[in-house]
Design a protein that fits this description.
0% strand; 51 residues; 2 helices; mainly alpha; rod-shaped
Length: 51
């Protein structure tokens, strides 16, 4: 999700489509939250590991 968010941010910047920029930020933040929660050892969404 972090990679997808970064790609959307770059595309939004290059193509100048604001919705891509906003979606990229949202996806990037969600990916970072999932990484932080997963690294803390807590189960996320009923799963201990995300593959």
């Amino acid at each position: 999700m972090i990679t997808l968010g970064a790609i959307l941010l770059i595309l939004g910047l290059l193509i100048k489509i604001p919705i891509l920029w906003n979606v990229g930020i949202l996806v990037l933040v969600v990916g970072l939250i999932l990484v932080l929660v997963g690294a803390s050892g807590r189960a996320v969404g009923g799963r201990k590991h995300w593959y």
